């Protein structure tokens, strides 16, 4: 009987001790914010284009993290981005929905400076402050900062913004995947009986 | 003789050097044109500093370095700059590069040469800047700017690379045989700049003449010429350092951190010519070999067209493929119109006997031959596997970036797999991913800062307003303690009137808010603010001036901006038109329950005071056009109602013609309204936005026309988008 009580007491004491340690650790080593959101946000391309239906990449990352949004809503991230998200979250790869916006080649906005009336609407729309200009003055886009989100196209009252696809030059040229050239093989004519 | 070390792996391909190493370096005549690309080194392309049509002297600077990792480019001969633009470039991509095209005048007029006679006393930075301005780069093929390689100091060993291990290439061999004295002078300069303790000159033992010439030239100095066994790739910097010093350069460590630096003999020759003779890098020795009739080394001006160069060596058939660089590390030149670059050490014309087409790749049998051939002691078959599967993270873990792309693995592969192509593919994909990552990080930072900025501005504005309100309240209390704010409205004190107006506006705003909840959600803040501002302005104007004639319309928004005084009339009109259209678009986007409403926005441009006839004519024409368009829209969408935005003409101010115009416009407007009201009975709504073009006064016609067209286009696009929304089929 005493041994039973002793065992019980030891177990209770242990439980209390470990509980105290865990409680202390959970307060002392608390992780600020959700690390998963930061990880998802790091995968997203940061175009801040809102094509996913969220006002920016971070809100979308938060929506993915709490499970309320699919991982296939980011066209600028491409299929590669979906693959990375699927890998991170341990879920199945999911292709883009057929009726959703599809990925397209990266482009940079360009303002036709002769047509620009200096209304500043595009400046207010740009999520990364990549447009320079002031009221009634010509505006221009910093090509190096432009993410190609196309958010400046809709507000322009005179339609003077175009998207210019980013071409390949010597600085961003890539070696192609080695392919095996396909040759036509001539089958010898069947000898006729 | 100190002991030599061996490096892992390596291969012994047929040397094929005897075709071109027997004849002295040939001087070539001037080519008809020179195409000097601006990207002559690793790093940034140089920035051109000449104009097309400009006369330049030999050795004159034609492009300045752009940043630290870049070198200057000079005119290889005197002549005229014909063009600066895109031209074919010797690069595996086949992409063009910015190129200066120079037409030689045949006179070879030098500009005054400035050497650096006091290089022994000169500070290290002075010598480095001098070399950068002289355009000296590594001529072994990697074209790394030399001034950066001389930045290290207090070296134990300077390794001079005369190994020239790749088959076919003999340019360094001939250079050492013929110009050993200059090379040794260059070694002296580099050894002095690097404060090198010892200098080892490594030359493969298949070049006995070069070894002898270098030994003669080094006689009396402390530089030691070392014959090393012939094995590819002993000319790789890390391999040569291993052979001569026994030091292995670990992953992620630079050779200079181990007290060793490696420089090519041709580079040292260029350093000597620059420092001692003031000659910038204008030419280089090129081996022309393979299927040519007179294989030889030639001294060619930079920018000489490659097809012209090959013609000098006797090109039998022009349509053959040409390799630039060696057969193992070089690439097939996509366009022979390109000019010779500083990297072009060898041109090999392919022939079927020596360069049979590579058989189709077979599956990897994991024989491990590539691993035993790899001079960097990597696992090429695993790297191949990861690169093929696009598993780049894993490839990096297996030290893909230590691969020097020497091609030994591809050479020994029994399955004929183009292994190096896979590594290059993987490397460029990883670089591209890093670029994207950098761009994403930049975008994230900028986006976060923007959000922070907006928040900050909001709070600052709130603070400012609060401070002002408090100040005014204090003033008010001091001047008229008993009066309440609502009673002040009838007072004639202007200050109080302003306060009252502001309060009334605020009240109106608060009242207006609940009405347009869905509206607010749909809009973004900036636009909404703009519309509100316009509405407030209109209301204030209405209260101040006589009421507008439009009693018929129920949801009419009249925007009466202040008359333009200092501002350009036309620009103002354009901005107004833009704002109104945006307001109209918003109004139209807002779903209206039941039948469609007739929401017409009447825009009253600034009252014209001193208008000339031309302007009036323009207005009239615009109005007629608007009317015509409206009629057309009505006909086209007979089943749909039109939310039309009509633009009213400027207010008449005394002049007869203007009055007439106004009357006409009013009539037209009335007609349009009636038509619109009739259409409103129908169930579905379409929105045709007819905008009046801005009035031209100070602006030039072309710009005005462009803006007009753009606005019309925009309106049409928006109307189409709305119709699409409403009519999903």
UniProtKB/TrEMBL annotation, chain A:
It is found in: Cell inner membrane. It comes from Vogesella oryzagri. Binds 3 [4Fe-4S] clusters. The complex is composed of six subunits: RnfA, RnfB, RnfC, RnfD, RnfE and RnfG. PANTHER family: ION-TRANSLOCATING OXIDOREDUCTASE COMPLEX SUBUNIT B (PTHR42859:SF3), OXIDOREDUCTASE (PTHR42859). [4Fe-4S] cluster 2 binds at residues 116, 119, 122, 156. Part of a membrane-bound complex that couples electron transfer with translocation of ions across the membrane. Its main location: membrane. Residues 107-136, 137-166 form the 4Fe-4S ferredoxin-type domain. Pfam families: Fer4_21, FeS. [4Fe-4S] cluster 3 binds at residues 126, 146, 149, 152. InterPro entries: 4Fe-4S_dom, 4Fe4S_Fe-S-bd, 4Fe4S_Fe_S_CS, Elect_transpt_cplx_RnfB/RsxB, RnfB/RsxB_Proteobac, RnfB_subfamily. Its cofactor is [4Fe-4S] cluster. [4Fe-4S] cluster 1 binds at residues 49, 52, 57, 74. Residues 32-91 form the 4Fe-4S domain. The keyword Cell membrane applies. It comes from the Bacteria. Belongs to the 4Fe4S bacterial-type ferredoxin family. RnfB subfamily. Keywords: 4Fe-4S, Cell inner membrane, Cell membrane, Electron transport, Iron, Iron-sulfur, Membrane, Metal-binding, Repeat, Translocase, Transport. SUPFAM superfamilies: 4Fe-4S ferredoxins. Residues 1-26 are annotated as: Hydrophobic. Its EC number is 7.-.-.-. This is Ion-translocating oxidoreductase complex subunit B.
From TrEMBL, chain B:
It is found in: Cell inner membrane. Keywords: 4Fe-4S, Cell inner membrane, Cell membrane, Electron transport, Iron, Iron-sulfur, Membrane, Metal-binding, Repeat, Translocase, Transport. Signal peptide: none annotated. Residues 355-384, 394-423 form the 4Fe-4S ferredoxin-type domain. Pfam families: Complex1_51K (PF01512), Fer4_7 (PF12838), RnfC_N (PF13375). Binds 2 [4Fe-4S] clusters per subunit. Its main location: membrane. Residues 546-559, 590-603, 628-644, 672-687, 716-729 have a biased composition (Low complexity). [4Fe-4S] cluster 1 binds at residues 364, 367, 370, 413. Part of a membrane-bound complex that couples electron transfer with translocation of ions across the membrane. HAMAP family: RsxC_RnfC (MF_00461). Belongs to the 4Fe4S bacterial-type ferredoxin family. RnfC subfamily. The complex is composed of six subunits: RnfA, RnfB, RnfC, RnfD, RnfE and RnfG. This is Ion-translocating oxidoreductase complex subunit C. The gene is rsxC.
